[in-house]
Design brief:
17 strands; about 25% helix; alpha/beta; Rossmann fold; SH3 type barrels; about 375 residues; 6-stranded antiparallel β-barrel; Elongation Factor Tu (Ef-tu), domain 3; 5-stranded parallel sheet
Amino acid sequence: MRVVAALSGGVDSAVAAARAVEAGHDVTGIHLALARNPQSHRTGARGCCTLEDARDARRVADVLGIPFYVWDLSERFAEDVVDDFVAEYAAGRTPNPCLRCNEKIKFSAVLDRALGLGFDAVATGHYAQIVDGPGGRELHRAADEAKDQSYVLAVLDAAQLAGAMFPLGGSTKHEVRAEAARRGLLVADKPDSHDICFIPDGDTGGWLRDRLGEAPGDIVDAESGETLGHHDGAFAFTVGQRRGLHLGRPADDGGRRYVVGVDVPSSTVLVGPPVLLEVDRVEGVRPRWCGAAPDGPLEGTVQLRAHGEPIEAVVARETAADGEVLVASLRTRTRGVAPGQAVVVYDGTRVVGSATISRTSRL
């Protein structure tokens, strides 16, 4: 097959490309220029898409002996990922930009361009597995549970899975780094990138404040209604957050307080004890199915954050005034489920689909 290998400049994409070459595919390496004004160097493990990353990607292509190109998708990335991120926080939700990037950039813009140029697939360094099942290609969890990225890939539909390759799905991170060293790839020991790639200093609140401005408001006790403190913008808080509240005094019982609600229109942040975070019903809008949608209630598991534990649940599809809604009834209550994140549905290791969390409650 003719394969586009997306080279980020890191070790995972480098080994994925090397394995695609070794498998006999006709591979072309591409690096995505996603930042409008890329920095020259990364700061440790923070950020990505720097000029340093582009140079590392080119060096990998040289070692592998494959053609290399840079695709400038910075405008598309700004519109579909960065602007969406700002709009979601402005509405009081907590988005996951990696999901949006996979949906809109890597497996929409990149895959569409690759197919238009006559390629058959796009290979990336994601840790997930694609399995040929009775109903077509299926997305499954990676063998390395600690590195599994199926959660952020759960936005892919059947057509996108048909054009995706994840060569690392059956390997551990340790094996990947050791293989990179054996192959003479200089990125073998390069730190993984963390946090949000377009906020390299990790200060999400400050970054949002620069774009949304200050919107002072109150921090209010959700049970008593008492004003406990003040803030510069409700958009800087997320459900389940404990740090950064600066309340000045503890709760009457000495317990910790958490953010239990964010009301951006009134610029109010509600805080309370952890019990107020407990929910066992999660609703999600704009569901996307990795294949055929379930034709009835599904007994499976759901994952509610990128590194969260699977939770047993019964998942059903319901019809609402504004479209289909995914409803997950959790077998056990869980805490800190933030609207704007994804609820991802699994049947064993198979990803069934995902939706954007819109509402939570207790049954």
